[in-house]
């Protein structure tokens, strides 16, 4: 049974910048740079029939390429930090693409996504890391010059259940056409 999600791939030049931010945070499990991505919609573990229906439904999306801007680091989890992420500026085309994916996937029969869409790229997963250590890390490495890339496609990814996520496999690409 595949575990699926839709997302944007991160180009090599942006991946290189983000990978230079690894390290310096005790207890962090760093995501391998080849697994960096921006999740648009987590789908989860589904059967093959539903996976095929989703894959064919996503071809209905007809959107133009758009720019994606990564701007600084932050953490998720508040007093119990659980991830260090590169923040993504929530542009109108990105939000609209995610909303269309959400509508189509609900039509296929998936439950609505329970969390508000907060675009980001996960760099590290945290367990038992103190707020102070995260704050110290972010004060040293949290700023980097904004990195912009053009999203020319989104993809349907699969993964196998594993600690820390990945490896992620592109099951199907969906071009964004001008």
UniProtKB/TrEMBL annotation:
* Protein name, per record: RNA 2',3'-cyclic phosphodiesterase
User: What species is given as this protein's source?
Assistant: Rhodopseudomonas pseudopalustris
Q: Where is this motif: HXTX 2?
A: 120-123
Q: Mind listing the GO molecular function terms for this protein?
A: 2',3'-cyclic-nucleotide 3'-phosphodiesterase activity; ligase activity; RNA 2',3'-cyclic 3'-phosphodiesterase activity
Matching Gene3D superfamilies, A to Z? Cyclic phosphodiesterase
UniProt keyword terms in alphabetical order: Hydrolase, Ligase
Q: What is its EC number?
A: 3.1.4.58
Motif range for HXTX 1?
37-40
Q: What is the lineage of its organism?
A: Bacteria, Pseudomonadati, Pseudomonadota, Alphaproteobacteria, Hyphomicrobiales
Q: Where is the Phosphoesterase HXTX domain?
A: 8-83, 92-165
Q: Where is the active site?
A: 37, 120
**Which reactions fall under this protein's catalytic activity?**
a 3'-end 2',3'-cyclophospho-ribonucleotide-RNA + H2O = a 3'-end 2'-phospho-ribonucleotide-RNA + H(+)
Query: This protein's superkingdom?
Result: Bacteria
**What InterPro entries does this protein map onto?**
Cyclic_Pdiesterase, Phosphoesterase_HXTX, RNA_CPDase
